[in-house]
Amino acid sequence: MGPRGGTTAPLFAALLLAVASCGAVGVPPIRVTPAQVQAAAVGNAYEQARAALAARGNGGGIPVKAPAAAAAGTVRPSPPPPLKRPGTAAAAATTCTDALATAFCADKGQLGDRFYAAVAFSCTCAYRCVNGRGYAYICQDGLQFNNAIQACDWPYNMSWTDPWVSSATSSQLASLPSYVNIVCVAFMLPDASYSGGVTFEGTGLSFSSDAAVVKASIALLKKRNPATKVLISVGGATYPNWDELNATSVALFVKTFGFDGVDVDFEGTTTCTRAATGRMACTSDAPYTRAVQLLRKALPQPYLVTTAAWSIGAYGEGLWANSKPQGANTGMSLNMLRSAGSLLDYVLVMSYDAGDKTTTGYDPAEALQAYCHYVQPCSKVLMGVQVPPEAWGGAVITVPKAQALAAAVKAKGAGGLMLWALTKPGTPSAQQLAQAACNVLAMRNCTQPLLRAAAG
Ligand SMILES: *[C@@H]1O[C@H](CO)[C@@H](O)[C@H](O)[C@H]1NC(C)=O
Ligand SMILES: *[C@@H]1O[C@H](CO)[C@@H](O)[C@H](O)[C@H]1NC(C)=O
Ligand SMILES: *[C@@H]1O[C@H](CO)[C@@H](O)[C@H](O)[C@H]1NC(C)=O
């Protein structure tokens, strides 16, 4: 990879989120919390949204409201709570109209009675299509419409979902450019109970589109871009139950949906301490190692097994014993890499949510050096950038910073860059960051759009 290889294509991985905007600003849960620098933490948008709802008397669940009254003179289908018809006292918006809904619904005649989040309104508006006729509804209390559950939902859950589509040909997943050559679909439960079939039942995934459309989209993407690998990300901050990892179920899901493998996103809690020997030891060492081993066993090569690794996970020993910032996750990758690193195809370093050189002392180029010391060859290491805002630490990636990291990756012979997350809105955009990486890594066709325009 990079300047030394010359023959292999550079890698660029990106996460396509199934769960967690539809236009709203959302952030993933906190990833690193070194005590000494907590004061520097920026507010977590999800926590803020939650607090705002709580302050308005909402205990923390999806509020249940009485169905809206029928508008004068018309018989309306009754909406699920907490949707309101535009024009009612609690839903004063006038822009989300039946006329827009009806235009949107024109081609959905065969699909029965169903709600669709209106992407143009950041999903605060939903269109209900009944036999081709459209009705507009508005979510209350700052919630957004979630197609997957057909109800208004916390903005956090909705923050990065891909839009609903009726067929693979119009899906964002199937239309990704070739420079995104590893696509991680997120997130699946480690303790999955999926037992076969074209369904998301038992997976924890809440894709907006139907399972058959997602499966066809994976196949179409791979047909269009034969070098692209599509992985299912297991775990993430929301699904930490690795003790009950069901590798059989995960492998069955991978095979049934035509994935190329699995990304182990182990984000369970951990505490790492330095032993008298100088070695780091973490409470997550055994379960993290076991997860990689079990998933590799269930998915032998040529299936891919990768891991999303913590920013400061390769710190704590040797040259990096005192690298900053230090926290409970310092060194969390080390023992897993020593025991099971050879089983991994790529290590996708979540090089964000850790502050920056001026606040916490975190330097992505230093994390790259550390990871390449423990992961050989270094071409297995990809460095992550996050579309702002970051969940913790207040660092804001810029295009020049992304270019500098890509240049460091290239100079080191590392594999490439990883982007969190494809569908996350922010400035700079996922598109700008991806194209910057594509250009610096000297990949092909960097002007291709990252995501096709969302319908609705
Ligand atoms: C949305 O997120 C909250 C907090 O994580 C969770 O309690 C809730 O169940 C989620 N809703 C759905 C529909 O997943
Ligand atoms: C794992 O998932 C399979 C379905 O693939 C199911 O039959 C099995 O009971 C699950 N195992 C456990 C321990 O939950
Ligand atoms: C780049 O785009 C051209 C023209 O669309 C296409 O023929 C070629 O296959 C693309 N290359 C890659 C690597 O996608």
TrEMBL record:
Keywords, in A-Z order: Chitin-binding, Disulfide bond, Glycosidase, Hydrolase, Signal
GO cellular component: a single term: extracellular region
SUPFAM superfamilies in alphabetical order: (Trans)glycosidases, Invertebrate chitin-binding proteins
GH18 domain boundaries: 148-456
PROSITE patterns for this protein: CHIT_BIND_II (PS50940), GH18_1 (PS01095), GH18_2 (PS51910), PROKAR_LIPOPROTEIN (PS51257)
Segments forming domain Chitin-binding type-2: 102-162
PANTHER family: CHITINASE (PTHR11177), CHITINASE 12-RELATED (PTHR11177:SF317)
Gene Ontology BP terms: carbohydrate derivative metabolic process; carbohydrate metabolic process
Keyword Disulfide bond in annotation: yes
Family indicated by similarity: Belongs to the glycosyl hydrolase 18 family. Chitinase class II subfamily.
Range of residues in the leader sequence: 1-26
A molecular function GO annotation: hydrolase activity, hydrolyzing O-glycosyl compounds
Domain of life: Eukaryota
Protein name (record): Chitinase
